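Hi there, hope your week has been kind to you so far. Would you mind checking whether the tokens look sensible for this chain? I owe you a coffee for this, so here goes:
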Amino acid sequence: MIILEGKKTANDIKGEIAIEVAALVNAGGKKPHLAAILVGVDGASETYVSAKVKACEKVGFDSTLVRFNNEVTEEELLTEIDKINNNDAIDGLIVQLPLPKHINEMKVTEMISPTKDVDGFHPVNIGRMALNLPTYLPATPAGILELLERYQVETSGKHCVVIGRSHIVGSPMSILMARNTNPGNCTVTLTHSRTQNLKEITKTADILIVALGKVEFVTADMVKKGVCIIDVGITRVKSDKTKSGWKLLGDVDFGSVKKMCSFITPVPGGVGPMTIAMLLKNTLMSAKRVIY
């Protein structure tokens, strides 16, 4: 059983990006610049955005953080996005989700220019992904592909089962794993809360990607010997065994399942760090005008 070490791989990618940024600046180019918009005060969002800002510093990017309180109007937020869209000094823009209920998240997503949509959520970029055209891939699915490629996990001809159909992970992952490329060329089954006989389906998976948001949902009796498991879930639960009083658990019961696996991602330290690394990679692509 091989652990797919996302933390180490993400650090490798950041190192590669830092070298490329230094070469870009030395050649007279400008530093890539990532802007993030954060609405309200949410502990998880604060943590994610802080990690993204630190990652920018580490690889030599410029970064801008725009903060709004929970009472910001949808119009004010859209106006700020338009302002950043038209700022040539900024290469990438992310709006940290979730947003307050009075703001339409899809309207916000559509307002971001596809050329600066380094989260890869804009319908234009999702469409380009579906057509296998050059685009910014959603960061978490892109990170999963990178892990599979760097650890040389065979995907061609394999049965990939995805649990969860979110627009952020499950749906794009099902498209990407079926593409005629490497990693890819899988036969893909996309499952969700209405899927019947889920256990029978997961037991046929050569590659199982779990993005459900339910703690330790996948157990050893749901998988076959030799499966590659990608655990996207991360939930904070109370624990009397840690100094903080909390611990992070995935959607997979790692302890019982690991003996069945050929490859598996840990939680934490698996998919999570890869998401930020791929966000940086997309921003560098934007700065270099690779796609648009």
